[in-house]
Amino acid sequence: MWDFFKRRRLVGKGLDCGKRRRTIEESEFADALQSGWPARSVLLGAFVAGLAILIFSGQQDEPAKKFLLCLLIFVTAVVQLWINHPQTLAVNSRLCLLLGVLLVQLAAIKITLFQAVAGNIDLRLAPLLVPYAFAPLVLSVLLGRNHGLYAAVFASLWGSLLVGRIDPVFLVISLITGFIAVYVTLQVRRRSRLIRAGVYVGIATWVLAAAFGQIGPVIWESPALTDWRMIGLQSLAAIATGIGTAIIVSGILPILEPLFKITTDISWLEMSDLNHPLLKRLSMEAPGTYHHSLAVANLAEAAAEVVGANPTICRVCSYFHDIGKLVKPEYFIENIPHGHNPHDDLTPTMSALIIIAHVKEGVDLALKHKLNGEVVDIIRQHHGTSVVSYFFKRALQQQEDARLGGKIMNMREDDIPAVREESFRYPGPRPRTKEAAIINLADSIESASRSLERPTPQRIEDLVNGIVETRIEEHQLDECPLTLAEIHRAAESFRFTLLNMLHARIAYPKREEPATESREEKSVA
Length: 525
Description:
- This protein folds into two domains: 31-266, no CATH class; 272-388 and 425-501, Hypothetical protein af1432 (Orthogonal Bundle).
- The longest helix has 33 residues, at 228-260.
- It has 22 helices and no strands.
- By secondary structure, the protein is mainly α.
């Protein structure tokens, strides 16, 4: 509050412009809530309490014994999570999503069976109305296939204990339909794929139920005695439940994504629309930067595919990584027309300050337009803590010239301005994900490639290798999970893509103009 009034006084005196960039606010309370053990303990305890409510409610045989079994399965589930998915266990929001979705599926199973026991649902239809694939579908799309398989296994184990007795048929149907749901939703990029997964789950449920005798029976000796109406209802229930589950999942995904700060490939694909207001501004106000961003997107997407990163994230984040240049586009080389360079009138320190500021301005614009958090992170990380080498070397050269001139004029060493490397270094942080590291390399490589006069394969290879080696020597890639083998494969991809982008063209001969009569010939005629 005091800073607000102090700033207002400075604005009134003309000593402050009043503008403040938006920044990512870090809160100790939010960090504790996101990764602290107390919050994690509350989540785990709440899930156990939910299991207890589901088991002890209604008429259950030996509920204490079943609760003990569920508790042992729960311990196994937590250990599995700790071994195979430590990042999910460490992030409380993801743990809340995982446990919450599992609990919702178990509650749906309990409600379905309770309604059947109460007589509101025919007992012959109840097993076919259970949403076996709900948790695997949701977690496979939001957290990945391994989490989907995890949900299929443990939802099946807990669910088989809720049906009144340990039911092996329920267990097998739940496991197989859950695995099918995960398999069909690998790399979902369109919501229609979810509906297709629901159809497959419904068909699988129908086939398994028929194989285990939960549909029918069909009296082949006397077909007239067969209850075909019930068989039709059972078939419809099996397939409709699968499709209905997929429709529900498709509907709740837009709610779960912002709530738990997770972005699916479906949403990334929607964000790749070049009609976004920021991208339209970039194409009009900074066309050079716009085309540079498109080229970086092509380089990064191709490299992401060969190293196992997410190509869609790389493409979308490449589009937005340089939006900070919209504030002063005329100071960046790709937007400077042939002629006067505005940096000629500035000191190297001031030029570097303008160049470095495009990262902070980009974060400000991204937060203003409510871009995805991963886009904001890559805007911050796409230069890491590297040095603006051109202006740093220019400053060192000017310092050396001043030192030589000072000797002639008998100036003291203290009168020569010092050049501090920190003034020419980006604030960072360094890339922390595969996607951020790939965009960091692609951005530098694409920018440097524009200086190649004759882009031969050997020159392109030397350029890519030099930039990659420099980034490694400067420890810019130390915090990202890329291995040396993956960096090598990414460099190969950069060389191949860049060679295709900078391919040479044939110099077509000029068209010869037909001979025409001169004015003198016409006047003579």
